[in-house]
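User: Hi! Is it possible to get a structure for several chains at once, not just one? Here's what I have:
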Amino acid sequence: MEKILNKPIANTFAKLGFNGTRVDVVDGVKTQELNVAAGETKLVVIDDSSLELRAEVGAGATLKLIQIRRGGEETGVVDVHVNCLDNAKFEWYRVVLGGDATYDNCSVELSGNESSFEAYVGYRLDGNEVYDGNVESVHTGKNTTTIITASGVLDGEAYKMLKSTIDFRRGCKGASGAENEDVLLMSETVKNKSLPVILCSEEDVDGQHGASIGRLDEGLVFYLESRGLSTESVYELMAAGKLNTIIRKIPDEEIRNGLE
Amino acid sequence: MSENKTHIEDVNREFYDFRYEDKDSFKVDSGLTPEIVEQISREKNDPDWMREFRLKSLEIFHRTKMPDWGPSIEGLDMANIVTYVRPNAERMNTKWEDVPENIKDTFEKLGIPDAERKSLAGVGAQYDSELVYHNVREEVASKGVVYTDIESALRGEYGDMIRDHFMKLVPPTDHKFAALHGAVWSGGSFVYVPSGVSVEIPLQSYFRLNAPGAGQFEHTLIIVEEGADLHFIEGCSAPKYNVANLHAGCVELFVGKNAKLRYSTIENWSKNMYNLNTKRARVEEGGHIEWVSGSFGSHVSYLYPMSILAGSDSRAEFTGVTFAGQGQNLDTGCKIVHLAPRTTSYVNTRSISKDGGISTFRSSVVVDKRAEDSKAAVSCQSLMVDDISRSDTIPAMEINTSKADIGHEAKIGRIPSDAVFYLMSRGVSEEEARALIVSGFADNVSKELPLEYAVEMNNLIRIEMKGAIG
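Assistant: Yes, the chains can be modeled jointly so their relative placement is included. Here is the combined structure:
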């Protein structure tokens, strides 16, 4: 599997075999085009950078995109558009560990039969940090699959908005999709907005979504305290647990270990 | 192996599509001008404040934009809608025999007097823009329960109470059709249940729109005082015409401390109807509002009953079913706002789409930072019956405190053929198996209705299944 790192991002993209063309750079946002050839697997890692990406994942190919934001004052903008052909697979691993403001859009079209999209979004925000994310999966191919899993922790006066949409278009027979979000609220002044949407114009589909938003269960806190943990440690442990749900999915051991 | 589809029949509307010519009725001109609003106000013998309120609302209507989201309402041209139609009847009767023959016949066919005799504590019947009949059982009235038309209440001893509450929950500035309602409202019911009184059998209002190209704008105001208990049922239907009809009613419910109100609706407007109704409840400390809603009719619906949980420990429940068939675009759901500590809400809905029908479930749960220790759960399920229909689920959640527990779940899919097959293998006929599965799917609503109404709802749907399992 080819692994592409982004430091420095422009050179990395050029050097490490994106077979698309770099299109534009506006206000530090790099627009890339990427074609993953049929049968190929590419792992792309982007750290702390804004990105515009247009990608096509060829028949039977896999694209794994890992994007980590580790904080910082600049506004982060991510705009990813991916089209998956027959049996193609796109996996998006997005972890936001702070940063003043982060705006994400990840739009995927599953145009090929049997193609799939998996999104794993984790965030931990504190202070006045803002995360506004949009994940959208459009099913036009038959027997296509989407899994969107988000898990995060909000503290301080953090603001988070996550919109996730599974759109079953007419003809995507046998498609299935599931969205799930789990949010831990750690402070009384956080603001959380969740909008899990399913649009459906095909009968032969199976779609579901679920969300769980709130604080830690008091019984659980009490139990862990009775086992010698301080209240702070309990919260820290559970917050880490929420994020690790996503981090554990990252298909690169080095990155995974670094984050854990 | 190809799989045969389970077939579900449309809602049978023959029962509701009879109509009478409205040749003897009085109508204002179509369209919306200050003169027409003044004319309605004169017809109604409004107090001055109400006339001014109507004119102010008209101004708001003209300066407010049409909604730019949801189903298209381009087919609705206000210039063609007649906003006031007075049937050829005395203003309001308390004796059934005094109601004019054709109107009486309409409600007889709809089973209203029969239901009143069997299972209701009181009935109100509105025909076009006017209530034509209102009655409440003596034993209920003797407890101090007031159930009357809102217009006589406005001019009588409850005038001040109505002025204090009228369009306070749904101000004309809320949206364009709330403003329209404020300008041309006519008819509707006023219910007042004094402290501690429990009305053990339901009250019902039935709204029938007979005139083609007309609008119905009834206002329902219910005040349930501390510790009181009421079940109110609302039904509506209309015959089908080739021109657009409009329903822009308004329901305002005030649920007092530790009081309980169940508000049930079986809506079966015809498929030329634009149903742009607004319903809202405010619930005080320890109070409880329950919405039970069945949406079967209309060409286009925008319907999202809203509960404002203003008092601590108050509760809201919303149970709904929506059936969208050919030519229907039904955008339904609810909104719940948690404003006080320890408030709870539960939303449980089902929607069925068939023959190109579009159903959208749209909900919003807002938890304010004051609403500590609040809980909310939303569950919605959609059934796609064929691949030319559409079903969307758009649930929004806004949580502004950490001291809350919010859950949401949704599912979308089709009638499970294996379940039909399983039931058939146990000796149930195919038709019965399908009926069982679909009634089970919609039973969140039917089990919340009084038995007579649950049976009526099942008759209304007349779900029939055909086809074989391949």
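Chain B touches chain A at residues 5, 369, 372, 382, 384-414 (CB under 8 Å). Residues 11-414 of chain B form one domain.

User: Great, thank you!
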